[in-house]
Design brief:
The protein has 207 residues and is of the alpha+beta class. The protein has a single domain, classed as 2-Layer Sandwich (D-amino Acid Aminotransferase, Chain A, domain 1), CATH 3.30.470. Helix content is 19%, strand content 27%. Strands 3, 4, 5, 6, 7, 8 and 11 form a 7-stranded mixed beta sheet that branches. Strands 1-12-10-2-9 form a 5-stranded mixed beta sheet.
Length: 207
């Protein structure tokens, strides 16, 4: 059975939140965690790899030529996954609003879900290593605070980076995603009125 990855809520001060987005009501779970990790929010297509193949977050999505690479990549991963195991990441083959010129690969993982639980960050990195999956870039790891958030934002290049995602390094149940994981997105992130799937396909570039 195909399963959609849960929605990531915006941090309360995320300038890119729109009227359609969900905003985190409290950062208490992040602030009280022993440790959190900030990772770069990549501008691509949320994609899940499962034991039978892969699918974008919109499970019923139609065919698009940009997805051929992803299907081929997932074909090498899927047979090694258990039925209750999913790898979620950002698929970056097609340019959306940000043009990437030095990607390590077109799929960057950010979550390992097993038995309806988002696994710890360290376990996730270990599983990625086993499967040959590259993780999204880490920006900061340590305790959560308003100062840390401000420092991470100050270090972003918002011309070339969409924002960041912060989560507890400890694992958590999927139903707790809205309190244990959040995103910060730059203001006016989507720069084009034409959806990327309806525009000319432009490939991002690899290293």
């Amino acid at each position: 059975m195909l399963k959609k990855y849960g929605r990531t809520f915006h941090l309360p001060d995320s300038p890119g939140a729109t009227s359609d987005d969900k905003i985190m009501s409290s950062v208490d779970a992040l602030a009280s965690a022993d440790e959190v990790v900030f990772t770069e929010k990549m501008d691509g297509e949320n994609t899940t790899i499962h034991s039978q193949g892969c699918h974008p977050r919109s499970i019923d999505a139609r065919y698009h030529p940009s997805r051929d690479w992803m299907k081929a990549f997932a074909a090498g991963i899927a047979p090694r996954l258990a039925e209750d195991e999913r790898i979620v990441g950002e698929y970056l083959f097609a340019r959306h609003s940000i043009a990437y010129s030095a990607l390590p690969t077109y799929f960057l993982g950010f979550a390992w879900i097993k038995a309806k639980r988002v696994q710890s960050w360290d376990a996730t990195l270990s599983r990625f290593l086993e499967l040959g999956i590259t993780a999204v870039p880490e920006l900061y790891r340590g305790r959560f605070s308003a100062k840390v958030v401000a420092d991470v934002i100050a270090d972003l290049n918002l011309d070339a980076q969409e924002g960041f995602v912060v989560r507890t390094t400890a694992g958590f149940n999927q139903e707790d995603m809205s309190t244990h994981l959040a995103k910060y997105v730059r203001e006016g992130h989507v720069q084009s009125e034409t959806h990327w799937m309806n525009a000319e396909l432009v490939k991002n570039r690899l290293l």
